[in-house]
Amino acid sequence: MKNNIPQHIAIIMDGNGRWAQEKKLPRTAGHRVGVSRIKEIIHAADDLGVKVVTFFAFSAENWQRTKREIVVLMRFLDNFLTRQIRELEENNMRLKIIGRGDPLPGYIQKKIKEAEAKTKNNTGLLVVLALNYGSRQEIIDAVKKFTRAVINGEEKLDNLVSENFANYLYTAGLPDPDLLIRTSGEMRLSNFLLWQLSYAELYFPRKYWPDFARSDLEEAIRVYQSRERRFGKINAD
User: Fold this and answer.
1) Which of 4, 20, 21, 187 could form a disulfide with 25 if both were Cys (CB 3.0 to 4.6 A apart)?
2) Model's pTM, two decimal places?
3) What's the pLDDT band for 53 if we cut at 50, 70, 90?
4) Pairing state of beta strands 8-12 and 179-182?
5) What are phi and psi of 168, to 5 degrees?
6) Is residue 14 among the annotated active site residues?
């Protein structure tokens, strides 16, 4: 498994609520177990030699959920940032958050800035959390940034090519994902990294996220290694 390891894995953590409902538990129980899975997969990815792992933690559309569920999700996020940051520091890992700050609660935004600052000089695995994230809004924000740069004389319109445009996305400076994993068997991107996933391999295991363990990540990587990535080219054979 050491050869051809995907350098960047993006994960849509789907199925927390259904996992809980099938066990006749409140949906929040699924989210609680799901958080523990994030920790497990972070360490597994680091052990396997992955350089970047991006988790779709909270979408811009998730604000439509019930107020109670949102409150619980924010509490879990607060606890994760408080506790996980120590582990990231101890293991030389770095944290990056992508997405719009508002309307995330002020205390969460403060915790995010503190966590990113504390780990910015670490050189190991980069853990990216997509919070209040939507890919369409990301692309619109990037267009606005580029337009402002043109108006201010910092850019030229002819410089708007794909490589340059990527520098205005939330993920500027990061390699595009090699592999996307979406748990629960659903086969949708759900407005996640639409630009960045253009050439990624897609993998849709049927397991719900709370059941997705290290062995499942290893299986996803084995499937990835069995595929041939052509990037639009034909097989030389």
Assistant:
1) 20
2) 0.93
3) very high
4) parallel
5) -105, 0
6) yes
Contact by Cβ (8 Å): 70, 63: yes
Rounded CA-CA distance 109/187 in Å is 31
Strand order in the sheet with 179-182: 94-98, 126-133, 52-59, 8-12, 179-182, 201-203
- 62 given a catalytic annotation: yes
Query: Residue 3's pLDDT is what?
Result: 81
Beta bridge partners of 11: 55, 181
pLDDT of residue 87 exceeding 60, the answer is: yes
Enter the tokens of residue 19: 């996992």
3-state secondary structure of 190: coil
Q: How far is CA 149 from the centre of its chain?
A: 27
All domains of the chain, ordered by start, with CATH?
8-134+176-226 (3.40.1180.10)
Catalytic residue among 46, 62, 91, 191: 62
Q: Helix, strand or coil for residue 128? A: strand
Dihedral over alpha carbons 132, 35, 79, 122 (to 10 degrees) = -80
